[in-house]
Design a protein that fits this description.
single chain; 869 residues; alpha/beta; 40 helices; 57% helix; globular
């Protein structure tokens, strides 16, 4: 703490902003900053405003001790160094500013800086506790200062009086760490080392390395759990095993964070916004096959000063700031000392093997008769956890002696593999190979084919891919693979799903490489998910909508894998049809941005496309994100899409294209309201002709939205009510939520806030059930307007803060033309209740989404405020 002379006082006792700079060089800039500070009713603390009888150093030290915010202005000069001092007053002021004091640093762009100032700025820039911005002139500087100080008032200082940041997850949310079904044995020292690194604020990237099967994933999860309290922003687990293209790593991270990629902005910007102010731990599992994504990971760390990354990989990422921890095999018994049960059980590799055998054979005991055989088994397997588990799975039917006999024989024959593989990894592959030798031919063939799946798969999918295996019984063969720990089974409600360890999946895929039927098998894998899409298409529009969205989300990796194969093999028609059938899923689960990229690939192929394929590709590439960046290609492209659908007789496709065409016409530089209205009416008629009730509900709500924007509230209400009635007949939860939300805004505009509140609450509840982040944000914004109109500023501020953080953390865009709540917020921000509102908004930004929704659906505070007015 800087010692302060109590006789030296600042000129004002409001929140005080200390301004540090050279005086003569930056005099215009100092005047601009002083004006900006005073406009916010804060007190500028500046050398020239102070008492002259005091020595300069005593003066600025005292002023710093009594200030709340530090602003540094830097141009070309380092400043005067007083006799007997090592640094200038300019550098001394920055050094003396308390670490907890917010620091806003502004650097003028032009000019040649003195060498010592260059060095000082380099150190400041490396300080992640300081905001560092460039400016060109005093006017721009004043704008920057006003904006940054307003942000601090809304977020930083209210936070000091509140509890620590609460963990936040969106509806698609921060992915919880996988639950470990077994204990971690023999890794206490390594877990402690990783946890210690993660607890160090100076460490931002930790990479846990080791060969496949060594236990990196399991250990990383344990270490992350131990430091959970250090990361109030949450822990996000990202399994990169299904990702083979480094360019797709940001998308995988975004998906784990619940960021919605609907094509309405760059994924990089959405990621940056979602993590920039969160003290978050990102656990990236299985990075080795996408290690070229290391620069993107490093860029994310640079953009987010409070982010920490824990990666597991067979190799280091080789980026600046990386801290590597190598994970080796479990400790082995000392065979020279003679085998005893007590000493053997004290050895981690033996303890793990015994525990895993007992999982399949509960009556197994380590005895004086079998202890030596067990020790020889773990030594033969080099103490590699995966190898031990695979071997232990055979302990259900083989004694240790029998297991050792078979193991030794197999390893002697199969040991080796690729010459560039590490020795331990070759042992793991040999162990998997040995384990498969105990399978029947049909079981080995099924295992190889199961390697085609990414992520989880169902029994139906396994049975489909097993078609053609002579003499196979998929149920029995799959059960044998589960018994052998080559496939893992999990119950998900009323059905089972299956997964494979990445090492086993890699081995299985290797068995298919070079086979003549590989292309046919990949086609068959894709065909299964194409059929699943056809089955889901209409289910996604009715009563089973929620269940199907959940199922498709679970199988998302396989859906993407199927699309990728279709595109790589230039099956454009099938790919476009597949994308079309799952339109509702892509939308609700936040993948329209990916679909946009896939369909652009179709259009850019240079191949001749049939009318239906081109119509679908044009729709997805033109309809997604047009509200953010309209251009001259949108209207012609959507018009062509509608015309092509018409030639194919696809009424629903034409109608959907007409809806987007109308919205594009309204979003263009010169809106064509008349033509947009014609397109929407045509869309509504086509949906009705096709008996497409889901589309009819969408067309009705869109025509009502246009009427609302035109202030024809009566017509809007009629359309919204009609849309709601259609959605309810169809049991379409998404349609209900959308119609209710729009109906709520219509009621707001006519001043019936009680009905509006009912609509917004019901819409919010439906969105929660659907895990639809966009609907949650809209619902919170609607209830913000209701609370603001009732004069309940704390409630309004809390709800708006929660809505803002949902949008920021999920990358959701809100078109300015439909941000109706802002008209109720602006008068508050310009009035005497601003401070109360901003303090509440800061609280809302720290709320967990579940808590925010529960708060939003409580009526007591709003009713009390309304009765008091």
């Amino acid at each position: 703490m800087i010692p302060a002379d109590p006789a030296i006082r600042t000129p004002d006792q409001r929140l005080r902003v200390f301004v540090s700079s050279t005086l003569r060089e930056l005099a215009p800039e100092r005047r601009a900053v002083r004006a900006a500070i005073e406009q916010l009713n804060l007190a500028p603390v500046m050398f020239e405003l102070g008492a002259r009888p005091h020595p300069p150093r005593d003066l600025y030290r005292a002023y710093l001790a009594q200030s709340d915010i530090f602003i540094g202005l830097y141009g070309e000069q380092y400043g005067w160094v007083a006799p007997g001092e090592d640094v200038s007053g300019l550098e001394d002021e920055y050094r003396l500013a308390p670490p907890a004091m917010p620091k806003l640093v502004y650097v003028k762009d032009d000019g040649d800086r003195e060498p010592r100032l260059v060095d000082l700025l380099a150190r400041i820039k490396a300080d992640d506790r300081a905001s560092y911005v460039h400016f060109t002139d005093p006017q721009q500087l004043a704008e920057l200062v006003r904006g940054d100080l307003a942000t601090l008032l809304a977020e930083r200082f209210t936070r000091a009086a509140e509890p620590d940041e609460a963990p936040f997850t969106s509806m698609g949310g921060t992915v919880e760490l996988p639950t470990s079904l077994t204990s971690l044995i023999g890794r206490e020292q390594e877990v402690a080392a990783v946890a210690e690194l993660l607890a160090d604020e100076a460490v931002r990237l930790v990479t846990l390395t080791g060969p496949g099967g060594i236990g990196k994933s399991r250990l990383s999860i344990e270490a992350a759990n131990r430091v959970r309290d250090r990361f109030p922003g949450g822990i996000a687990f990202v399994d990169l095993a299904p990702v083979t293209d480094p360019a797709l790593v940001p998308a995988a991270i975004a998906s784990a964070l619940g960021i919605i990629d609907n094509g309405d902005g760059t994924l990089h910007e959405k990621l940056r916004m979602a993590v920039r102010d969160r003290r978050l731990l990102l656990l990236l599992d299985n990075v080795e096959q996408v290690v070229d994504a290391a620069p993107a990971i490093r860029a994310l760390l640079t953009d987010a000063p409070h982010l920490t990354v824990l990666a597991t990989s067979r190799i280091l990422l080789r980026v600046t700031g990386e801290h590597g921890v190598e994970l080796g095999p479990l400790a082995l018994p000392d065979m020279r000392r003679g085998a005893t049960v007590a000493r053997a059980l004290g050895t981690p590799s033996v303890a793990l093997f015994v525990e895993r055998v007992r999982a399949t054979k509960p009556d197994f005991e380590l005895t004086a008769e079998n202890v030596e055989d067990v020790e020889r088994i773990v030594v033969a397997l080099d103490g590699v956890p995966l190898a031990l588990e695979l071997a232990a799975a055979r302990g259900r039917v083989l004694t240790p002696a029998e297991l050792l006999d078979r193991l030794d024989q197999r390893l002697l024959v199969l040991r080796g593999g690729a010459r560039d593989l590490p020795e331990r990894q070759r042992t793991i592959r040999s162990t998997i190979e040995w384990s498969t030798q105990l399978l029947t031919p049909t079981q080995r063939e099924l295992l190889a084919r199961l390697g085609l799946f990414s992520g989880v798969f169902t029994f139906d999918a396994a049975d489909w891919i097993a078609e053609g295996i002579a003499g196979a019984d998929t149920l029995d063969d799959l059960a044998a693979l589960v018994d052998g720990s080559l496939v893992r089974q999990q119950d998900r409600g009323d059905r089972a799903v299956f997964t494979m360890l990445s090492t086993v999946r890699e081995y299985a895929r290797d068995r298919l490489d070079g086979r003549d039927d590989l292309r046919a098998l990949r086609d068959r894998h894709a065909q299964y998910y194409v059929r699943l899409g056809e089955q889901a298409e209409h289910e996604l529009e009715g009563a089973t909508q929620l269940a199907w969205i959940a199922r498709l989300h679970e199988e998302g990796d396989n859906l993407r894998s199927a699309v990728r194969h279709l595109l790589d093999t230039r099956q454009w028609t099938v790919a476009a049809q597949f994308a079309w059938t799952l339109y509702v899923y892509w939308w609700v689960d936040g993948h329209l941005g990916e679909v946009h990229a896939w369909m652009q690939e179709v259009l850019d192929s240079g191949d001749e496309l049939d009318a239906a394929t081109r119509a679908r590709a044009l729709y997805f590439t033109r309809a997604i994100g047009f509200w953010q960046d309209p251009d001259e290609l949108l209207v012609p492209g959507l018009g062509e899409s509608a015309a092509l659908f018409r030639t194919e007789g696809e009424r629903s496709g034409e109608a959907l294209a007409l809806i987007s065409l109308a919205l594009a016409l309204l979003a263009s530089r010169e809106p064509d309201v008349a033509r947009a209205g014609e397109a929407l009416e045509g869309s509504l008629g086509l949906f009705r002709e096709a008996d497409d009730t889901w589309g009819e509900a969408m067309a009705l709500v869109t025509t009502g939205r246009v009427a609302l924007l035109s202030r024809d509230v009566r017509a809007a209400v009629e359309r919204f009510e009609a849309s709601l009635a259609v959605a309810r007949r169809q049991h379409d939860s998404l349609g209900e939520a959308i119609a209710l939300h729009h109906l709520g805004w219509a009621e707001v505009l006519v001043g019936d806030f009680s009905v509006a509140r009912d609509c917004f609450e019901e819409s919010l509840s439906e969105s929660i059930r659907l895990h639809h982040d966009d609907g949650v944000a809209y619902g919170l914004e609607g209830l913000t307007a209701v609370a603001a109109a009732a004069g309940d500023l704390p409630r309004a501020g809390t709800l708006l803060g929660a809505a803002q953080i949902v949008r920021e953390r999920t990358g959701l865009y809100n078109a300015p033309s439909f941000s109706f709540h802002q008209q109720f917020v602006d008068p508050i921000l310009a009035g005497p209740g601003r401070d109360v509102f901003e303090a509440a908004r800061a609280r809302g930004r720290r709320m967990h989404v579940d808590d925010a929704v529960a708060f939003a659906l409580q009526r007591e505070t709003a009713d009390a405020a309304a009765s008091a007015t």
